[in-house]
Amino acid sequence: MTNILKFIKGYVVIRLSGYAPERFLNLCSRHHIILWGMRPVGTEYEMCISIGGFRRLRPLVRKTRTKVVILERHGLPFILHRYRNRKLFAAGAVAGAVLLYVMSLFIWNIHIEGNYSLSDPVVLDYLENIGIVHGMKKKDVHGEQIEEMLREYFPEITWTSVEVKGTRLIVHIQENEDAAYDMVPDEEPADLAAADSGTIVSMIVRSGTPLVSEGMEVQEGDLLVSGKVEILDDAGEVSETHYVHADADVRIRRTENYQESFSMNYDKKVYTGREKTSFYLVLGNKRINIGGLGNTFEQSDSLTDEFPLKITENFYLPIAFGRNTEKEYFLEPTTYSEEEAKKKAEEELNLFFRKMENKGLQIIENRVKIGVNGDLCTAAGTWVLEKETAKEQTPDMTEPVQEEPAGERE
């Protein structure tokens, strides 16, 4: 900040020479004239001084019989003086500064991160439908409202956060497809039911009445923890009943089947080495092609590189340059070797397990076997998982009507 103030006020680099430079420096200190960057040059001294301080030096120079020479001029006042007769340049500089300020009031880049099953275009299309688009004013971005609408529209989103950085709108998303259940408000009574079938391996109840225990088999929909709490009197009879919002951590273990297969014969892409490159310019939401012909290859892969224009890390401008490259290929009938096929099947199995782990599942055991039979490579078997399984539901708070014994009726 100090350097910025020095630049705005302006300063000069001077060279001090003469009979008594030490006395000159002492007088500057006594008159509160600030000097900095001082260094000796032979018998002379070079230093920096503000414009205001330099204007107060004349009596001190005369009194000490020293000589002061200006070597360099720095700062905004000198720049403005240099271009004082160039009105168009000054007007352009001011207009540019105003334009940058105005552009900083808008959102020019919407970035989605953390999404796995939901693609960027899907999320961006929904945001566009609710009025969240590139070029909107930052003051119209209401983060909490956007977060709530995203969670309501996409059941697989369990957590989201929206923040504005510079001219960027960053949407953080966390997905868990298995946790998309209706939630009962915390202030209302609730039961906990099993979301999946399996064997309970751990159970920690914080509130409510547990109806199952570790080691028990449960089916999807079975009641695990009841929100109904009964208070017994000294005789062991129910004296009072009230309902709470059940809260517990329940983990189950279950076995799942896995079976995937693919043909040993496939069409392999062989690239010819022929490429065509075209360029484009993005202005706001409009794309303008710059040179280059359209794709004339019968079969090709398209690779696109886009470079948004930004001033700082988060100050994106509504301008981007892009390059599109088409690479020609042809399909050649090929057959996997047994080793290649098993490696491919193993990679697909590992990818499947990674997807399951991203959903919050813990893989306990893998019993999947990979084999080749004729023209098919098959991965089949079972795998054991552990997961949280508890979904909230509104309890039935209607008390059963007890009939009086026949002998007591009048």
List the topology elements.
Elements: H1 2-9, E1 11-18, H2 21-30, E2 35-41, E3 44-50, H3 51-55, H4 58-64, E4 66-74, H5 76-82, H6 87-103, E5 109-113, H7 120-129, H8 143-153, E6 157-165, E7 168-175, E8 191-193, E9 198-207, E10 209-210, E11 217-218, E12 223-226, E13 228-232, E14 238-243, E15 247-263, E16 265-283, E17 286-290, E18 300-310, E19 316-335, H9 338-358, E20 362-373, E21 376-388, E22 391-393
Parallel strand pairs: 5-7
Antiparallel strand pairs: 1-3, 1-4, 2-3, 6-7, 8-12, 8-22, 9-11, 9-15, 10-12, 13-14, 15-21, 16-17, 16-19, 18-19, 20-21
- Gyration radius over CA: 37 Å
Mean pLDDT: 86
What's the CATH architecture of the largest domain? 2-Layer Sandwich
- CATH-defined superfamily of the largest domain: ACT domain
Kindly state the percentage of residues in helix. 10-25%
Which range does the strand content fall in? over 45%
Which secondary-structure class do the elements indicate? alpha+beta
Distance between the termini: 95 Å
Give the CATH class of the largest domain: Alpha Beta
